[in-house]
Each structure stands twice: as C-alpha cells, then as structure tokens.
Design a protein that fits this description.
Blueprint: E1 10-11, H1 18-26, E2 32-34, H2 43-57, E3 62-65, H3 87-93, H4 96-112, E4 117-118, H5 145-162, E5 165-171, H6 197-203, E6 209-212
Parallel strand pairs: 1-2, 2-3, 3-4, 4-5, 5-6
Amino acid sequence: MQLSYGHRLIIGFANKDLPRIKEYLQKRMIGGVILFSRNIESPSQLRQLTKELRSAAGFNCIIAVDQEGGKVTRLTAAKGFNDFPTAESIGKTMTPQQARELYSKMATELLKHGINLNLAPVADLKVSSDCPVTAKLERSFGHNPDTVITYATAFIQAHKEAGVMTCIKHFPGHGSCSRDSHEGPADISHTWQQTELKPFKALAPLTDMIMPGH
C-alpha cells in the first residue's frame, strides 16, 4: 500500500471520533495518535483502546502521550496508574541512578498499556522562575545544563531499555518565556540564552525525536 504524506502525522481525537481514527489508521492516512486525559479513563480501558487502535492500523503505529511526571501527566494516580514526581523534584532529591530506576517504572507502565512514544523529557533549562509553562509547573530538571543533561539521559535510557521512544522538548529552549504558549504567542527573542542549546545538542543523539517550541 502506498503511504500518503498524512502517514507522517500523529493526531489527537475526541472519543466520539474513534471510528474515524481507526479508519484513518486502517487506510494509513496517519501514522499514529496522541492520547490526552480525555481519552484515558482507567488501566483496563486504556489497554483496550490501544489494542483497538493497533489492530485497526495493522502495523506498529505510534501511540503517544505526555507523561513527564508531576503536573504534566496523562496516566494519573486518580485513574489507577502510578504517581510520578516532577522533574524539578527528581533533579533536587534523587541520584541519576534512582531517577533511572523510577523512569524505568514509568516506561514499563506505558508499554504495558500499549503506548510506545513518550513526548518527554523536558530539556528546557529553568532560566526564569516566572516562566508559566516550565518553572511554575516544575517541568525542568534545573537551571544547570549539565544537570538537565544527566537526568534527561536517565529518562531516555530507561525508556529505551523498556522499548518506549522519547522526544525531548522544547527546542531551542522554552525556559525563559513569560507567557503560556498554549494560550498565545510566547516570544523569547530577548530572553533566550545560548546555553539553552547545550542539553539539546547533548541529548539529540540519544532520543528519537525533538519537539520544537510553539
């Protein structure tokens, strides 16, 4: 079957649109999906959903989530999954080996429920404590690029060993923005620093893909 350019895409969907999404996968019009909180109700429901998606696709399509830990978590403890701390907390309180063991548990849980791409870890530096989408949500491992590299590497390696792909974000660095980029343009032209590239340069050979900033 000839692939369309759409096969390069992964898309989100409302649950009511599942039949259409399965058709898209069957016809190879898309390469996979990204699941959000609205798609996930419980462990058993998630396993059934990913099974249906992969069965419709007929190939090992991408099924992705944002599972960073802390406030950016799709498989939540409230829905019956394991709870994981924020990146900032891990960078402050755990050794790299402890972090790797924790992220191995995360990756294993994802794979068990049919997810093969985690849109994480965050490779942004904590440049500004006022950044609403990084510092305020404790999504960065820290302000030091070497610290970010060390803990993001532990994250990536743990996922790779479990068979789950990773995606570092948000290139070229999202830690100095003063606005929430989900709600409008966030300009970093005058706040971005060259040192923010260091984690991306170091982690690029290890990860599977890179997500740009909004």
